[in-house]
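Design job #97: recover the sequence.
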C-alpha cells in the first residue's frame, strides 16, 4: 500500500514549535515550584527530622500544635503571626501612598526625569542584605548617623532596633524604602496610560486638581493599584531578610518584637531541625496569602468607563 507524505502547513509548524517552547518553562515551573510545594505538604503531615532515618506520618499533629501555640499569648508562633500582619498593615499603605505621590510628581517634570527614576529605583536592585546592614549601622545608638543628626538638632536619641516598641516600625521603614522604587516605576507606567484628553475635558468643565485626581487618576489607576496591593502584601507577608540581618543574631528581637512567620519557619526548620512543624507553618502561610489575595482581587478590582 502506497503511503502519501504528510504535509504540515507553515501555520501548523509554528503552533507545534510554540507548544514545544512552552513546554520548557512549564517543566521548569513544575520542577522548581510545584514539586517543592507538594513536598512541603507531605512534610507537614510527618514528624520530619532530616537526621532521622524515618519520617513517621503524624497526620494533623503539626497543625494542631500551631493552633495550640496561637492560643498561647506568650508563644513565639503567635507573636510571629501578629508581627507579620503588623508589617502588612504598616508597610503596604505607606509604600503605596508614598510611591503614588512621588510618581505623580515625576509624571509632571520634563527635565532630568531619567536621573530621578534611577535614583529612586537603585535601592530596589540593591542587595537586601547589604541594605539591611547599612541601615543597621544607621540605626546604631550613640554613633549611628540618625542619632547623630537627632543630637545635632537638639532632639533626644532613640534606641531604634534595641527597643521592642521601635524595632518593628524601624525595619518596616527600611522595607518600604527598599521596595518603593519598583512601585514608583509601575505607577508611572499606569499614569502614562491615562489619556490626556480626559484631563482636558474635565478642566473645561471646571474640575480642580483634587477632582481630577479623585475622579480620573484614581479610577483609571485601579488595575495598577490592585496589582501593587496584591504584590506588596505578599512581599510583606514573606518578610524575612531584613529581620534576619537587622536584629541581633537574626533572632527577631528584642523580645521577639520583630520576628515573622518566615523567620519562625527558618529557625524551626534549620535551627531545631523540626522540618515537619516548619512545613506546616509554610502551608498555613500559603493558605493565608491565597485567601488575602482572593479577597483583595474581589473587593478592590473595579471597572471604569468614560
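Job complete. Output follows.
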Amino acid at each position: 500500500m502506497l503511503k502519501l507524505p504528510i504535509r504540515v502547513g507553515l501555520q501548523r509548524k509554528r503552533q507545534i514549535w510554540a507548544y514545544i517552547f512552552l513546554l520548557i518553562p512549564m517543566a521548569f515551573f513544575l520542577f522548581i515550584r510545584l514539586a517543592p510545594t507538594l513536598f512541603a505538604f507531605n512534610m507537614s503531615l510527618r514528624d520530619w527530622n532530616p537526621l532521622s532515618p524515618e519520617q513517621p506520618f503524624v497526620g494533623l499533629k503539626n497543625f494542631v500544635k500551631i493552633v495550640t501555640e496561637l492560643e498561647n499569648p506568650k508563644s513565639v508562633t503567635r507573636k510571629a503571626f501578629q508581627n507579620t500582619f503588623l508589617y502588612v498593615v504598616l508597610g503596604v499603605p505607606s509604600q503605596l501612598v508614598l510611591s503614588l505621590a512621588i510618581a505623580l510628581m515625576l509624571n509632571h517634570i520634563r527635565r532630568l526625569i531619567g536621573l530621578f527614576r534611577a535614583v529612586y529605583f537603585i535601592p530596589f536592585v540593591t542587595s537586601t542584605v547589604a541594605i539591611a546592614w547599612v541601615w543597621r549601622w544607621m540605626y546604631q545608638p550613640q554613633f549611628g548617623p540618625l542619632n547623630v543628626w537627632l543630637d545635632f538638632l537638639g532632639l533626644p536619641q532613640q534606641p531604634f532596633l534595641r527597643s521592642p516598641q521601635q524595632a518593628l516600625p524601624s525595619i518596616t521603614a527600611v522595607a518600604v524604602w527598599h521596595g518603593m522604587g519598583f512601585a514608583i516605576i509601575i505607577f508611572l507606567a499606569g499614569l502614562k496610560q491615562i489619556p490626556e484628553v480626559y484631563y482636558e475635558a474635565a478642566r473645561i468643565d471646571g474640575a480642580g486638581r483634587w477632582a481630577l485626581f479623585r475622579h480620573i487618576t484614581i479610577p483609571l489607576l485601579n488595575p495598577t493599584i490592585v496589582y501593587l496591593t496584591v504584590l506588596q502584601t505578599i512581599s510583606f507577608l514573606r518578610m524575612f531578610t531584613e529581620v534576619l540581618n537587622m536584629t541581633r543574631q537574626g533572632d527577631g528581637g528584642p523580645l521577639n518584637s520583630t520576628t515573622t512567620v518566615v523567620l519562625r519557619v527558618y529557625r524551626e526548620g534549620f535551627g531545631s531541625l523540626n522540618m515537619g512543624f516548619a512545613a506546616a507553618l509554610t502551608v498555613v502561610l500559603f493558605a493565608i496569602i491565597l485567601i488575602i489575595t482572593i479577597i483583595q482581587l474581589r473587593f478592590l478590582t473595579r471597572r471604569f468607563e468614560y
